[in-house]
Task: structure prediction
Amino acid sequence: MSAKPFRLAVKAIVFDGADRCLLLRRSATNKNFVGCWEWPGGKVDDGEDFATATLRETVEEAGLQIELIGLAGVTDFEMPVANIVLLCMEARIVAGELRLSPEHDAAEWVPLPELGRFKLLPRVDQFMFAYAARKTTPA
Result:
């Protein structure tokens, strides 16, 4: 990685009662990755802890209040202006109804083994596939 600054970002893998995760499709209002599917999340604001950021981003992007239930994992990638450290948390819904922000134009509840049907967010897709394989493989 380069000498660019490091920034922390978060994603929530929100599960419904049928063990499906929420995917959101990036709308044309975004400058990067329009049409790609992702888990809800975004940048951690200065002075904000990762848990608060994950809860805030999920409300902002999906209208859902969640409870964090576990660590899914961490990955990293380089963007033009920063190195991104992405912390992914497992979550479940505690309140709210699905309502998209202008950042997204579609949502789907997807079983983890079906993530491959979607054009996922580049640089994060391999992490998403590895997580799905880990979670769906019997112990």
In short: The CA atoms of residues 26 and 35 lie 5 Å apart.
